[in-house]
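Session log. Operator J.P. requested a structure for one protein chain; no other inputs attached. Running the standard single-chain path with token output.
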Amino acid sequence: MEPQTFNESNSPMRRKGRFSKKTLLAAGVVLVLALTVGGYSFYHSYNSDAAKQQRLEAANKALVAEVGKLMILPSGETPVIYQIDDPASLIAQQPFFTGSQKGDWLLVYPQSAKAIIYSEARRLIVNVGPISFNGAANKK
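Structure written below.
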């Protein structure tokens, strides 16, 4: 039996890579393209009008549920919801807004003629009162 000579090609510890550099580069390019197309697709589906509307409806539903834990709300009616951005000017126009802060929510129930100011940050109802349309109270 002849003695074997040691070289790198027959060493069990050192094995050549299974893929060539061209193959690895091509796989990398395909991976980058797939991630780019996937990210672009996700971005557009997340920012579509339908997705934004769905998120807004879910947020409004959660807000109404949160207020509903603190008081009995008019049943069978969906409120119109506004966020208070400038409480100082609203207070100057209408004393109903006294105590409100920037970021508070105004829930208006037109059929029940009821308005609610809710502070999500403070987790409390700031004010509740009747609303009127065209200067006259709306009575059922």
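Operator note: Residues 19-69 form one domain.
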